[in-house]
Write a structure and sequence with these properties.
- The structure holds three protein chains of three kinds.
- Chain A is α/β, with parallel strands linked by helices.
- Chain A folds into two domains: about 220 residues, 3-Layer(aba) Sandwich (Rossmann fold), CATH 3.40.50; about 150 residues, Response regulator (Rossmann fold).
- In chain A, about 40% of the residues lie in helices and about 15% in strands.
- Chain A is built from twelve helices and twelve strands.
- A seven-stranded mixed β-sheet of chain A has the order 7-6-8-9-10-11-12, with helices on both faces. A five-stranded parallel β-sheet of chain A has the order 2-1-3-4-5, sandwiched between helices.
- In chain A, helix 8 links the parallel strand 8 and strand 9.
- Chain A is globular.
- Chain B has one domain: Orthogonal Bundle (ABC transporter involved in vitamin B12 uptake, BtuC), CATH 1.10.3470.
- In chain B, strands 1-2 form a two-stranded antiparallel ribbon.
- In chain B, helix 2 packs across helix 11 and helix 12 packs antiparallel against helix 13.
- The longest helix of chain B has 27 residues.
- The relative contact order of chain B is 0.17.
- Chain C is mostly helical.
- In chain C, about 75% of the residues lie in helices and about 5% in strands.
- Chain C has eleven helices and two strands.
- Chain C has a two-stranded antiparallel ribbon.
- In chain C, a hairpin with a 2-residue loop joins strand 1 and strand 2.
- Classes of the chains: A alpha/beta, B mainly alpha, C mainly alpha.
- Chains in contact: A-B, A-C, B-C.
- At the B-C interface, helix 5, helix 11 and helix 13 of B face helix 3, helix 4, helix 9 and helix 11 of C.
């Protein structure tokens, strides 16, 4: 009796015509546990939202490539299926999970991976198999440009770009008559903080600023009063922070406790963009600046619509890092569509040929065009400032949505 | 008595071929490599932590030295990382002497704490020392210049190299445990004061054990760096590296010959499986299971799975 | 001494008092039962979360949420002792280390799973003031934490040395068998000790949460600090832990200020290793 039932079921299923094209599988790898778990989960949600937008219609997003929500039009409307893996922040697990996604799940392309050290090993694995890997967020210089590597495409600006941006901004401030001669760099001392601090130092020298102090510290510090007091003594005009969430919050609080307020603070994303930062320190850190290629924008814009969807999905506003990953996803989806195939080599060629204009992007880049090392040469960032309970774009002036407040108000 | 060994050996040798037919072949072969790597590290730890009963939770010191030296040679002088392996062993031995000598005066928890502290100290120093890459660490050659760079597309060559190294280490461990060193170490583990009163040169033999252990662990570190192609302070010298070696050896059975291997065979696939199944949801479930297993082993079967096996076999024989 | 250096010294002492606060429980367990508790940092973290939950859902002030944390952690400590520690203590050293280490992972990630990795802060409520003593700025929550630490250390010390209960605890610590022969029930006392140790860690966590941002993963750092403090103070000595906490806090802050924040850790660990090699019984421990 059971056998007949099963047989009937099988026959019925076989009889259903395959009217939908097979989904296109994309491997997504982020740190979903461990220290960066919070950021990894936010990025994962962003990429998932990207897939939802491509796969089904959402209002107000038609300007984006594939924004009509009808799947990949050139592949018969095939939907995108994400296969997500957790690399736990471990470069070895990153390589292993990438291997699994490629050989076992047979993904057409990869996206990830947040920590530069993991992106480094994961991309080495995908390169071996010729599978394109789109990097949305890792900024270490050595990820692109390895001799013979041609499947890595990085959409985000890199550490050197950010440093240059800060210096250009400070140069603008100087021209406007503000006192900006001495800067201080405070950085957490793992690979993220150290590499960005190094590029910032270099950029500062190139642009003629003096680095009054560079203060590396451990992100797990329980007390940062010595560092703040060192800053008080060095008396820089601007302090650039390269820090994670808990320490960024701790610094803001300690600076208030010790009554130290420089003319301006610039935070290098990360901790300053974490959804927990603003609620924790908004009242005492008014006017701190941050970098972001993401701006929510006014109601009616594509970015506003995306943020509304993201907030409904996760309860938080979209942050810059997750936004960059979502942008990378759209770039990849568009490339697969143009490739009209899931063959790795065709996707790779399509990626290399990518040419997107700012109007087609959700992030504030000048466009997306990859050079021969796979780096997006049109990547850019705004500088934003905490005014009230949200960041506003304040530089460059042509992208500004609010006026810059200088000096920062802090808790006053 | 012979046949379980032969069966195990045959299984290990044939494993890559056995899994080659499936879709997951590459992944399973890679996992085999990771199992062997974990087994090598844990076997190294086992000498001092299992046989001699000195629970070091700072073996990352030797692992890290073994991992850094090969890539250091490449980063600064473009030499094949393989050449750095003996240097790694040399540095580890030096560290073993420098650290072991004063630390072995301590017993029990004091000893364990000291090993943690020394490893952490080196962890911090390495993380801030530009010559060894500071926080960013070191990278090896991106593309192979020849066979000597040991960069293979498939995991299979790594598998057999690692298997050979493991076989060598197990043989060395076996010889040690059969001989006088093993005898003395067992006496030391049973009770240091008693051993000393019986005339066992406790200090000296603990040091020998540490040096042997450091050598093996250093090799594990070198193999890790060669396979991965990069190293950083956290994955070379971090406390989790040390703890993992302890857990794997303890799970299988510390102080037994195949305990570390058994531990690796169980734990690595389990880790991978839980991460694959639960990891995508990002809930940290992998670590909850990991932690739970460790607590269960500690609470119910501290002798590890080998001990459990012996007990079950013994009860059945009755 | 410059004003900044004086501020550093004051901060160091206040920080050290907090270290002493969460280390005094650890030294009690260690001294009594010779068990390293790798999960001690997680007890502090649980205290932080217990306080946060109480403040959020029951709208209590600092007094309420600290008490809540103390009670919850006391219960957790006892349960852990009964379920795991009691049996593991009789086993090999390896098992003890593994048991508490596994416990640490379990607790850390159970909280991670339940509450997400978000970094949280606890509003200080009634304690939200800064005192200005001649240019030295002191946050009231920190001062309170420091005072509570001192009171707790004193209380624990008095408990151990002046009460019948205390002498029974010490008897068990000294010689379990002999204590049993005297009619003392070691099991109950050890469960009590675990409860007290966990409770003190919980109180520390609750107070610290008002000035340190926390997440499920913050416990890791506290554990290592606690070990250093306990070793310096001498295993089993609560006054030792208090003294050592102050010393460590001071050394950390001063070396961070004078040499550099990175070297703060190097100095502390270096001191730790030197201590273990040269004077393992610490400042006030028994040789």
């Amino acid at each position: 009796m059971r056998h007949t039932f099963a047989a009937a079921a099988v026959l019925m299923l076989a009889a259903v015509p395959a009217w939908a094209a097979d989904p296109v599988k994309i491997g997504v790898i982020f740190p979903l546990s461990g220290n960066a778990g919070s950021a990894g989960n936010a990025a994962k949600a962003a990429v998932e939202l990207g897939a939802e937008i491509v796969n089904s219609p959402h209002q107000g997003l038609e300007a984006l490539p594939l924004g009509e929500g009808k799947g990949l039009a050139n592949l018969g409307g095939a939907k995108i299926e994400l296969i997500v893996a957790d690399h736990q922040g471990d470069p070895s697990v990153g390589a292993q999970q990438t291997l699994r996604l490629i050989t076992q799940d047979k993904v057409a392309a990869m996206l990830g991976a947040y920590q530069s050290s993991v992106t480094f090993t994961a991309t080495a694995t995908s390169e071996r198999y010729g599978i394109p890997f789109v990097v949305g967020d890792s900024v270490a210089a050595n990820i692109t440009g390895r001799p013979g590597f041609k499947s890595i495409f990085r959409v985000t600006p890199v550490a050197g770009d950010f440093a240059t941006n800060y210096m250009l901004f400070l140069a603008d401030m100087k021209k406007a008559g503000r006192k900006v001669d001495q800067i201080a760099i405070v950085n957490e001392n793992t690979d993220y903080g150290t590499s960005v601090a190094d590029t910032t130092q270099k950029a500062a020298k190139e642009h003629g600023f003096t680095v009054a102090a560079q203060i590396p510290y451990s992100a797990k510090s329980t007390d940062v009063s010595p560092q703040v007091l060192q800053l008080k003594e060095a008396k820089p005009d601007v302090v650039i922070f390269i820090s994670y969430t808990a320490d960024s919050i701790l610094y803001m609080k300690t600076m208030k406790d010790l009554d130290y307020r420089p003319a301006m603070i610039i935070g290098d994303d990360s901790g300053f963009s974490d959804p927990n930062f603003i609620p924790a320190v908004a009242e005492i850190a008014q006017g701190v600046m941050n970098r972001s290629a993401w701006d929510v924008g006014k109601p009616g814009t594509v970015t506003y619509a995306i943020n509304t969807l993201y907030k409904a999905k996760t309860g938080h506003d979209l942050d810059d890092t997750s936004g960059r990953d979502m942008q990378a996803f759209f770039v990849l989806a568009d490339a697969i569509n143009r490739a009209q195939s899931t063959e790795p080599e065709k996707i790779r060629a399509a990626l290399q040929a990518t040419s997107l204009a700012p109007a087609q992007l959700m992030m504030g880049y000048r466009g997306v065009k990859f050079d021969e090392t796979g780096q997006n040469t049109e990547a850019a960032t705004y500088l934003i400032q905490l005014q009230g309970k949200a960041y506003q774009a304040v530089w460059p002036e042509k992208s500004a949505t609010a006026a810059l407040q200088w000096p920062m108000a802090g808790w006053k | 008595m012979r046949w379980p060994w032969l069966a195990l050996g045959a299984l290990l040798i044939a494993y890559p071929w056995l899994v080659s037919g499936t879709d997951s072949a590459a992944f399973l072969q890679d996992m085999g490599v990771l199992v062997l790597l974990a087994a090598i590290g844990a076997t190294g730890w086992n000498i001092v932590g299992g046989y001699a009963g000195q629970v070091s939770v700072g073996h990352a010191l030797f692992f890290g030295a073994g991992a850094y030296l090969p890539l250091l040679l490449y980063q600064h002088w473009l030499l094949p990382p393989l050449l750095g392996v003996p240097f790694g062993v040399a540095v580890s031995l030096a560290l073993a002497l420098a650290v072991g000598y004063p630390t072995f005066r301590l017993v029990g928890h004091y000893f364990s704490m000291a090993t943690i502290a020394v490893a952490e100290l080196v962890h911090i120093v390495v993380g801030n020392w530009d010559f060894v890459g500071a926080a960013i660490g070191l990278q090896g050659p991106a593309t192979p210049r020849g066979w000597y760079d040991l960069i293979f597309l498939s995991s299979v060559p790594y598998y057999y190299i690692f298997l050979a190294v493991l076989a060598l280490l197990l043989l060395a461990t076996w010889r040690m445990q059969q001989g006088r060193v093993g005898y003395y170490l067992r006496a030391i583990r049973a009770g240091e004061r008693a051993a000393r009163s019986l005339g066992v040169p406790v200090r000296r033999y603990k040091l020998y054990a540490l040096m042997l252990s450091a050598t093996f662990t250093s090799l594990a570190g070198s193999l890790y760096a060669l396979k991965n192609g990069s190293i950083d302070p956290d994955y070379g010298f971090g406390i989790l590296v040390s703890v993992r070696m302890v857990i794997i050896a303890a799970l299988g059975g510390a102080g037994t010959l195949v305990g570390p291997l058994v531990g690796a065979v169980i734990l690595i696939p389990l880790e991978t499986w839980t991460n694959t199944v639960f990891g995508g949801s990002g809930s940290g479930l992998t670590y909850i299971i990991y932690g739970g297993i460790i607590v269960l082993i500690a609470r119910f079967e501290p002798g590890g799975l080998v001990e459990l096996w012996h007990r079950l076999v013994a009860t059945r024989a009755r | 001494m410059s004003l900044n250096l004086l501020q550093i010294v004051v901060n160091g002492l206040l920080l050290g008092a907090v270290y002493a606060l969460f280390s005094s429980g650890l030294t009690l367990i260690w001294g009594m039962m010779n068990v390293i508790n790798f999960a001690h940092g997680e007890f502090v973290m649980l205290g932080m979360f217990a306080a946060w939950l109480t403040q959020r859902y029951l709208a209590g002030g600092p007094l309420v949420f600290t008490l809540a944390a103390a009670v919850v952690l006391f219960l957790i400590g006892v349960v852990i002792y009964v379920a795991i520690i009691r049996d593991v203590m009789r086993g090999p050293m390896l098992a003890q280390i593994l048991a508490t280490f596994g416990l640490a992972l379990l607790l850390r990630y159970a909280v991670f799973w339940a509450f997400s990795p978000d970094v949280r802060t606890l509003p200080a409520g009634a304690l939200d003031h800064t005192l200005d003593l001649g240019g030295i700025l002191i946050r009231l929550p920190r001062l309170v934490a420091g005072l509570v630490a001192g009171a707790l250390a004193l209380g624990m010390h008095l408990l151990l040395t002046r009460t019948a209960l205390g002498s029974r605890l010490l008897a068990v610590a000294e010689d379990r068998q002999a204590a049993m022969l005297m009619g003392i029930r070691p099991d109950r006392l050890q469960a009590l000790a675990w409860g007290l140790a966990a409770a003190s860690a919980g109180i520390a966590g609750a107070l610290m949460a008002t000035f340190f941002p926390f997440s499920p993963l913050t416990g890791e750092t506290y554990a290592l600090t606690a070990f250093v403090v306990v070793t310096l103070g001498g295993f089993g000595s609560v006054p030792g832990a208090m003294l050592a906490g102050l010393v460590i806090g001071l050394i950390e802050q001063v070396s961070a200020y004078e040499i550099g924040p990175i070297y703060q850790d190097v100095v502390v660990y270096g001191l730790f290793v030197a201590l273990l090699w040269l004077r393992p019984q610490g400042l006030l421990g028994k040789a």
